[in-house]
Each structure stands twice: as structure tokens, then as C-alpha cells.
Amino acid sequence: xxxxxTVSRNExxxxxxxxxxxxxxxxxxxxxxxxxxxxxxxxxxxxxxxxRGYPFGSFLLWKQPAPAAELVIGALRxxxxxxxxxxxxxxGQQRITSLVNAIDPLAADAxxxxxILYSLTRRQVIGPRDVGSDIAIPLPDLFDFGRALxxxxxxxxxKEYAPEVQRVTALLNRVEVSAAVIEQGDERVLRDVFDRxxxxxxxxxxxxxxxxLHSSGAADGESDLSLPAIASRIDxxxxxxxxxxxxxxxxxxxxxxxxxxxxxxxxxxxxRAAEGAFPGESEAEAYERTxxxxxxxxxxxxxxxxxxxxxxxxFRFQLLILVRFFGFFDSPSPRNLELISRWFWxxxxxxxxxxxxxxxxxxxxxxxxxHQNDESGSVQRLLNATEINSPLPSPDIQSFxxxxxxxxxxxxxxxxxxxxxxxSREELSRGQIAQALDGDASPAGIALELxxxxxxxxxxxxxxxxxxxxxxxRQDFLTGLVDASRTESLLLDDELVDxxxxxxxxxxxxxxxxxxxxxxxxxxxxKTGAGFEFTPPLSDLDFDTDDELSAxxxx
Length: 555
Fold this sequence. Notes:
3-stranded antiparallel beta sheet; 23 helices
């Protein structure tokens, strides 16, 4: 076979044969493949189709060598040895994962999505919550003749259903799944095939398509260059939380060009090289440099802007602009770091009058202000884009919501006080925040309500004055306040603590609202640099005399 020749042949496998191939590590899922996305209803539907004799699709496999690796396929963990002819799944991951996990007793027990039973009463597959008074046999027991006999022996009330058990067991063991096996050494051919078949099943989103076409898996000790791997490493290094795949691919795109809506298929096509900021950059280089820029942007947000976790981020577009900035300038001057932090906060508190909504148009416009080889000019253009003709507003605290930008400003301001945990008497760390918010899309999990909201009608308790940052539950928090010190870090004083302990809701919320509004006004002025000039670093200014150098114009 010539090196550029693509050969495919058709094979068929029983479910048991496919299960053995997975268990012995011959079946592999490429790093660029999607994660398992099916839910319990999808798995149930697959087996319903199998038992009805309906077609349920074929697989596309790629024969290539594979290194030794620890594999995670659904709930199965496989220590796979090195293989010279592994079968990499190009299409059919969801079905293969479902097939081999649903017939495995340990996998089905570990993950409810794979927990399927066959109702002998109704003669159909059902979920564990639908059993009711049915006589139902777990699918792993039904699939294996020996286990099926054992199940019948331990369920004498199912004796009359023995013929049905035998029928379905035999049917499951006879079913064959077809597969086209590609033999081709060029991975780009595989990616092309993968992209062409992406109209089947649950369609991939743009970020998954991009990762499928351009990422590269770990090999020979190198880092895994895929979007999820980048997000995981950023989280591990910073406790910023795990960014979703879309955020990472948008970061990669915006670093190279302001338009993040462009077609991802031809991102690294030579014809597009002239359009981006990094002509000739390879896929691997783009992934590596994006990760470095993302890491710098996240650390800037945490250390300079005061955003501890991605759920505190008012607008995603701000992270993307910062990635572009830090993609061009890996060591900005201290003055420009100060000014870019002011841009961040001005674009947050003045978002409404400026018309910022976080749209792709906002990204394109703001990213267009950031020019390669023009650090200070980029900063100044961003700042000029946040000018308004009225004082910068403080966030409205009357109707606090953790998923609104105003609510996130409040939480960032409370975080800036360096809140102390009244139980441990120690300052809360970013790691504690990350642990408390693991898997959450908003910071609600650490925005503790001091007084529970009344149900059925609007309540003053919805005021931001009713919130503190805490990783403790309400009762533990209140108990810890009895002997707590440094309550000012929670924007509380002795009087407020007394009102809280005595359950005087009305007076507490009134007093704390006054304190919070005063503090937020000062916080916004400080973070946005209100009243100060935004002159660039002294090194960028052209002074005529040494006398002028002694009296700089910058604030």
C-alpha cells in the first residue's frame, strides 16, 4: 500500500468481542474525540433498538499503533499495553462506550447511565427508576448465560420467564455490529473523515470540531495538546476553575485574529496565514502559546484584578481580550498592568452605558484595539473605548444575583477584603473557593445568605447586604462568629454581629446596606482609577529635558 493510499475494509464484531477489544486495550479513543455525552435515555434507546432488531449504526475505526496508557472509557478503567495495531475510534464512541459499559456489572453499578434492566413482565428494557412491581433482570446478568442461570436460581418467582431470559440472552449474544476499518498513516486523512461524518448523532459544537481537527494527543512524554487538557492544566496551576472547551478555543482564535466567528476548519490553512498575527504557526505551537497566554491572563485576573475564580468573571469577553494582550506581551510594564486592570473594571461597571453585552462583536471590536508590537498603544486604545460622560456607577445591591455582572462586582469587592473563615480563623484561599465551586457555573455556592429569603414574595433579604463570602453553611458560620476576630474582613462590625446573632433582620440589613454601598463606591473608584489620568509608562514618554523628567504627568 502506498503511503498516501487510504484503504478501508468492513468487519463485524459481536458485543462480547467488542467488549474484549476494549478490555484488552486494543480499542482506543483519540485525544481529539469528544467526551462521552450520552445520558441514560440514550443508552436505553440503543439497547431498545438492538432488542427490536432496528439498525443502530456502524463504527469507523482507524488501525494505528498505540502506546501503553491508562484508558478511561465510560466507567471502565483499562491499563492498556503498547499495541502495534490498535483500533482507534473515529465514529461510534458513544455507542461503543454504552455497549461495553452496560453489560459490565461493575461499570453499571458505578455509573447510573449504564444501569439498564430488562423487564420480563413488559418484555422491554427499562431504567432502574421504572421497575416498580416488574420482574426485571439487570442487563449484565441477562447478557451472560452463566449469570442469567444464577439470577434465575436466586429469583424463583421468575421461573416462568426462563424461556424469555434464554431468548433475549441468545439474541444479545448473536447481535453483530459492523465497522469500517481504515488503514492510513496520515492523521489528517482521519481528521477529514471525522469532520465529514459529524452530521450523525449528537452534533459536535464548534469548539469540539476545532479540537478534532487541530489538537494532538500526548506522546513520548509530551503534553496533551487538546482543549480539555489545557483547561485542566490551567485549573491545576491556578485554582481558577475549569474553563469550558468553548472558552479555550475562543482564546486560541482571538490570540491569532480578532474575529472569533471565522470558520475553524481552515484555521491553519496556508492561505489564511497572512490574516493572523502569527503566520506559519503550527497547530501545536498555537495550542502551546495559547495555554501560556491563558495562564498569564488568569494569573493577572487573580493577582491584579482581584478575580479569584472564573465564576466571578463579569464577562467572558474580558478574558479573551486579556489572552490576546498577554499573547502579544508576555512581560508588560508594571504601569500597563495597572492600566489594563483599570480597563477591566471600567469595562465591567460601565458595561451598560457602553453597550457591552459580551457579544462576539464586543470581542472583535475590543480585540482589534490590541496590536502586536504596540503594548502601550493597545492599552490606551482599550481605555479610550471605556470613556463615558458620566460618573462610573456602583453596582445596584437591591436585587443581588450571582449570575449577573453587578452581583459579581459585589462578590469581587467582598473578596478584596480578604475574608476570614470564622471557623478556622484563617483567610479563605483561592483553593478553598475552587473546591467549594467545583463544577458550578456561578459563584452562588460561596455567596452565603445571612438571613434566608422569604418564599412567595420579594424580600429585603435579596439585597446584597444579606451576603458574605463563606465556604461554611449558615449555622456553622453564625456559630463561628461568636468568638471570631477580624470580622471587618466580612464587612461586619460588633454591632452588626450582635444584630445578626439576635436575628434582627430589618436593622441588620439596613445598617449593612449602608456600609456595603459606601464600601462599593470606594472599591469602584479605586479599581477604575476614577479621577486619575491614564498616561502610559514613563519610558514611553518623550521628554525634552531632564527637568521635565522630574515632574511626570502621570498620576
